[in-house]
Amino acid sequence: MFRQTLRLYTPVPMMVRDTAQVDKFCGPNLTPGSQVVLSPLHLHRHMWLWDNLDGFDPEPWQNENRKYCQLAAFIPFSAGLRVCTGAGFAMLEGVLLLARFCAAYEFMPIAEQVRQPLAHPTGRYRSGIWLKLRLRGV
Q1: Cα gap 102→93, rounded to integer Å
Q2: Which of 23, 28, 34, 101 makes a 20 to 30 Å CA pair with 63?
Q3: How many Cβ atoms sit within 10 Å of the Cβ of residue 128?
Q4: pTM of the full predicted structure?
Q5: In angstroms, rounded to a whole number, what is the distance separating the alpha carbons of residues 102 and 90?
């Protein structure tokens, strides 16, 4: 469930990297030092990779396509040598906080609309995400 949330609402929607060597990418050669913008926001919603692009599908990532995408096309915290040093902690912390909040509160959306993320250096939404919280057991 938490991975699916990170797929749809990635914390880092875009990142810039410099090429280290000559490379050909969709046209002209890129020279060393060329800047390339990577977009996990778009990669995580690419129609060739994911089923149900904009839908929240909380099923575990057990089918073959999801297993492949989790390894090759799921980069909410970047990947390789430039991966966020806090990625492992964020995955653990996010699941624990989500479990604690869901145990204590019932969440209800205030408005019934799909909220698409804006492409900023960190994930944002034009008017935020509005929820009504109700303490469980009250």
Answers
A1: 14
A2: 101
A3: 8
A4: 0.75
A5: 18
